[in-house]
Structures are given as C-alpha cells and as structure tokens.
C-alpha cells in the first residue's frame, strides 16, 4: 500500500478487509512511508 501511495499518479488506495483486525492493519500500514530507496527498489522489481 505504501508503495502505491508513493506514486504521484495515485490519489488513493482502496483496500479490502474481512474483519476488524484487517481494518486495523490497513490503517497501520498507511501511517508510515517507505524510504525513497525502497520505492526505487520496488519500482525496479515491478518494471514501473
């Protein structure tokens, strides 16, 4: 999720959850950001 949010063209990410724990995990995942070198590494792995 953080990788997608690091993309300038992505305004929002729609997540899914089947239970309360998954909602909590999704919120927690959005509360931190990847380092720029991590975004670059993921970009290379996905050819974007």
TrEMBL record:
Pfam families, sorted: Aldo_ket_red
Listed InterPro entries: NAD(P)_OxRdtase_dom_sf, NADP_OxRdtase_dom
Native organism: Polycladomyces abyssicola
TM ranges: none
Name of the protein in question: NADP-dependent oxidoreductase domain-containing protein
NADP-dependent oxidoreductase domain ranges (all copies): 2-45
């Amino acid at each position: 999720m953080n990788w997608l949010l690091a993309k300038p063209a992505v305004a929002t990410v729609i997540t899914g959850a089947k239970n309360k724990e998954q909602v909590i995990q999704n919120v927690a995942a959005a509360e931190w950001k990847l380092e720029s070198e991590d975004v670059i590494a993921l970009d290379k792995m996905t050819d974007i």
